[in-house]
Amino acid sequence: MATNSSTLSAAGPRIKVCESEAKRILTKWQATLAANNASNPPVAITTLDISCRAWPLPTLEVLEPALVQIAPTVTTLKIDDIIASLPTDDGFATLAFFQSSV
Fold it and tell me: How many whole angstroms separate alpha carbon 94 and alpha carbon 82?
């Protein structure tokens, strides 16, 4: 039996994401997740694409509720360049988020 799957994406232009943009993304993702869960059968998120944007730790913390929700079903994580243009310590904090939080 085939499983319905989907991609959750916030990929975009190579810019540093601000917290207000992260909140808009979270709202969009929550609507997508609600619709997917209401489907029969539910649609699992198997790919998360947040590539090509710089994600400071506070912006990932905004997205954490959705990230924790989809973590059990994600098999492909696209995070190309998510620390590009961030200071070294900020980039390390961003990478550590995925190890400790999700």
Answer: 8
Residue 9: how many CB atoms within 10 A of its CB?
A: 17
Phi, psi of 19 (to 5 degrees): -65, -35
- Residue tagged 């098999």 (tokens): 75
Please tell me the distance from the alpha carbon of residue 60 to that of residue 23, in angstroms, as a whole number: 10
pLDDT in tens, 24-60: 999 999 999 999 999 888 899 999 999 999 999 999 9
> Look-up: residue for tokens 């649609």?
43
Q: What is the rounded distance in angstroms from the CA atom of residue 43 to the CA atom of residue 34? A: 10
Cis peptide before 58 (omega within 30 of 0): no
- Decide the pairing of beta strands 5-9 and 76-78: unpaired
